[in-house]
Write a structure and sequence with these properties.
By secondary structure, the chain is mainly alpha-helical. It has three helices and no strands. Helix 1 packs across helix 3 (about 35-50).
């Protein structure tokens, strides 16, 4: 994968953040760099294959879904002007 000098710089910061369990926001604040630049570099590195997009099921929380109830009383109570 060919990287620009900037992408290499951001990649090293991003990998360091992942190892230290820091957010991108914290990396931006610690290194005094622009957030837009970091997010743009992340996107470019994802597209080039320089960053993995590994999300595990542990990263997500399963929420309970309430059962659907069909209420037949729902309807329009007023005739609309278009018929």
């Amino acid at each position: 994968m060919n990287q620009t000098e900037k992408q290499s710089f951001y990649l090293s910061r991003i990998q360091s953040a992942e190892q230290n369990k820091l957010s991108i926001r914290e990396v931006v604040q610690q290194n005094n760099i622009g957030a837009q630049s970091v997010y743009a570099a992340v996107e470019a590195l994802h597209q080039k294959g320089g960053l993995s997009t590994t999300k595990t099921s542990q990263d997500f929380v399963k929420l309970p879904v309430p059962p659907l109830t069909h209420d037949l009383r729902f309807g329009l109570k007023k005739q609309l002007p278009n018929g």
